[in-house]
Amino acid sequence: MTREADRQELPIPLRRDVRLLGDLLGEVIRESGGQDLLDDVERLRRAVIAARENPPGDEADPAGDEIAALVAGWPLDRAELVAKAFTIYFHLTNLAEERHRVRVLHGQADLAQEKGEGGPRRESLAAAVAEFGTDPARFAGLLAGLRVEPVLTAHPTEARRRAVAAALRRMAALIQALDQAPAEAAEVKRRLREEIGLLWLTSPLRVKPIGPVDEVRTVMAVFDDTLFGVAPAFYRALDQACRAVPGTGAGPAPVAAACLRFGSWVGADRDGNPTVTAQVTRDAAVINADHALRALENATTRIGRALTIHAASAPPSAGLALALEAAETEHPELLAQIGARSPEEPYRTFLLFLAERVRATRLRHADLAYAGCAAFLADLRLVQDSLAGAGAGRQAFGELQNLIWQAETFGFHAASLEVRQHSAVHERALREAEAGGELSAQTAEVLATMRAIGWIQGRFGVAACHRYVVSFTRSAADIAAVYRLAALAVRSGPPPVLDVIPLFESGADLANATRVLDGMLALAPVAARRAAGAGGRRRGNGEAGGGRELEVMLGYSDSAKELGPVSATLALYDAQERLARWAAERDVRLTLFHGRGGALGRGGGPAGRAVLAQAPGSVDGRLKVTEQGEVIFARYGHPVIAQRHLEQVTSAVLLASAPAVLDRGRDAARRFRPVADRMAAAALRAYRALVESDGFAGWLARISPLEELGRMRIGSRPPRRGAGAAQGPADLAELRAIPWVFAWAQTRLNLPGWYGLGSGLSAVLAGPGGLGEVREAYQGWPVLTVLLENAEMSLAKTDRRMAARHLALGGRDDLTAQVLAEYDLTRRLLLEVTGHPRLLANRPVLSRAVTLRDPYVDALSYLQLRALAGLRGGPGPGAAAPGERDRLERLLLLAVNGVAAGLQNTG
């Protein structure tokens, strides 16, 4: 299919938006940089498209050589402007695609409502609930314990500046206006031209490093713009789906409970990040609470003002009457002021009084403030019960119910802060603290963090911050160290309430997880914490407090970097299987916390399918998962997309817990595990042979912008752990998974998402079962389905010609040949097993999007290669002249930013 044919296949509204935004960008470029600049942009655009339409028949690439010469011939200031033009084009295209996705989701919902027939939508809550149609008792039990908890992290994978993201949000509203008010098209276009011009004049690179408090504020913008409003809409959809199950109730009272909770590592994850201090964590808690309390105050005020029910129409209950009387006694002036505006409207009066109490809580006015969210929820339920008892059921379970759901979901803290630190840091700190001598700065900071957790709990409640994640947990002693440090930090009173969570990341630690947990259960602080919660889960915004409950975190990023994608996938599956069996044998209600990254090489990919690929019994109605960097804005940046994502994830949690799905998963694992084991063994050998090659780390640093990524200032965290944070490429083990994946994406290879799979497939295809056995395993076992589909998606975003140019910078023909041979093998065998004629043949919409983007990504890759060649001292016309290194690095970072926008992923 030709490029023009692909373009014509795009939906007309999307094509219109892309063309409009592209034309406006062209106007801005002409106005700002002159016709010559636009001509250069167009010259490069036409050249990369022509090179794609007429690919070379062998390793030679004359068209690519001509493009490289064109780019190398520009002065650096011109090259920067061209890179900027293509980067902004991708931002605008991404915006148009997001708007069209919202358009499609709205259209699907409207069509379903209009038809009122046919089966439920794929990956919907209704589709998941339908699995339980013959087992309502099982569904009721599952629904009662259902919990989905996204944890927002500040992992540095969002390459856009906040100013750029804000401009794009404004433009998104304007694009929406084109659909809703076409008569105002001229004014909308004028404002779009203004915003695109502003974007052109805005530096795409950060001038100063982003700090952790900046990251907190960035994430909380998502709470304000999306999450707070989406939560009740999600619950309404869940409630509607649940009512299809026989025996779930027919009245106005909701069936669905508030199953969402949000966590946050932003401002609390200090593993390898010295800029996250105890004071930063305190500041994060204050900022989060301020946003939550403002949102609840505004919602309570809005609902209170609308609830103009006369006392004679729905007499208040005795409980509500007593509460009003107590409020008038304690705060007569305030109640008189409210009552004057709401005569004989008790519900309005009381809710407006509650809004004043929430405001007082935010402003710390002790005489009126709430002690915690539980008291606020009790007051809301008092109003709800009174309305329901008076026959005003629709008012009781309408907007007021939405507010109750929001308070249950977010509490007074928005998201529960989770502290994370490395086990080795605790070991050193405990040794120093118990020795009684002078403390190092790091140990003093560990103890200050414990005191900060206690301070947060005292001000905002235990739910605001009580989980402590221990990176690289290797034994129960690593857990005990945290409790001991907490006791040493707070000598004047009780230590903070802690739920310490082991994080298993390496292959060896995953295999050893259950033995660590046995030792953990024997620890006195763990036993005491579990005993204290033996009464079960508290109603409202309390944390999971059941004495049976335990949480364990699994790290996808570091395991994938250590073992490669195939072996890491199976190692994580095995760990889940063992942990589920361990929990069942000990009557422990286990929550697995999945530390997934955004990129495919770090456990990313479509979340719903990933949940269904978990080991049977390991989900059991509960999912906790990290949402990192760019993924936060991709999934939660727009209310419609956010609701759809939450529905997809929750439907997958329900499906993964359905008896029929569990049985199918166990049968598939028994049948196809031998095939997977043979594949994993061969894949691991191939992967380790590459990454353990002499000089591999230095080679990677030469062929990619690995060492420059930290200077993009896209996050507060250094790219390396420990002392190596500012060092060169000598130790790959200290390199974090995010820059590892980011660097490979920039080379157009995406190696962490597929390397070793070709060797693995080759080994099993040569076995007695051959292609038929491997295809059956791919189609029949979700683990292998997701593994191969993610690899296919990862390969679809690669380009062999551009990758070869990057690899040539390394001066290692042996490693280049090794990588390209595995690439060719993986691509060929993956297509053979899936039966697809080309990558993503079964996903035509995504395939077209990738195909149409590729030439423009190529343009930025050529610009990046020019800068890399100069910085690495390579041959050719792009070699750096004295004094040009800073400007070459700026060009490199601009191109990196653009490639990330074009591929729509970083790390």
Topology:
Elements: H1 3-9, H2 12-53, H3 62-72, H4 76-115, H5 125-130, H6 136-144, E1 147-153, H7 162-180, H8 185-201, H9 212-242, E2 263-264, H10 278-306, H11 318-330, H12 332-341, H13 346-363, H14 373-389, H15 393-396, H16 399-410, E3 416-422, H17 423-435, H18 441-460, E4 465-471, H19 476-489, E5 499-504, H20 507-511, H21 513-521, H22 524-532, E6 549-555, H23 557-563, H24 565-585, E7 589-595, H25 607-612, E8 622-628, H26 630-636, H27 639-656, H28 659-691, H29 696-703, H30 737-746, H31 757-765, H32 770-780, H33 782-796, H34 800-808, H35 813-834, H36 844-871, H37 885-903
Parallel strand pairs: 1-2, 1-8, 2-3, 3-4, 4-5, 5-6, 6-7, 7-8
Helix pairs in contact: 2-3, 2-4, 2-8, 2-36, 3-36, 4-7, 4-36, 4-37, 7-8, 9-10, 9-16, 9-27, 10-13, 10-16, 10-18, 11-12, 11-13, 12-13, 13-14, 14-16, 17-18, 17-19, 18-19, 19-21, 23-24, 28-31, 28-32, 31-35, 32-33, 33-35, 34-35, 36-37
What does this 3D model show about the protein?
The protein has 907 residues and is mainly alpha-helical. It is 64% helix and 6% strand. The protein is built from 37 helices and eight strands. Strands 1-2-3-4-5-6-7-8 form an eight-stranded parallel beta barrel, surrounded by nine helices. Strand 7, helix 25 and strand 8 (622-628) form a beta-alpha-beta unit. Helix 4 (76-115) runs antiparallel to helix 36 (844-871), helix 19 (476-489) packs across helix 21 and helix 36 (844-871) runs antiparallel to helix 37. It is globular. The relative contact order is 0.10. The model is unreliable at 111-117, 535-540, 542-546, 599-603 and 723-730 (pLDDT under 50).
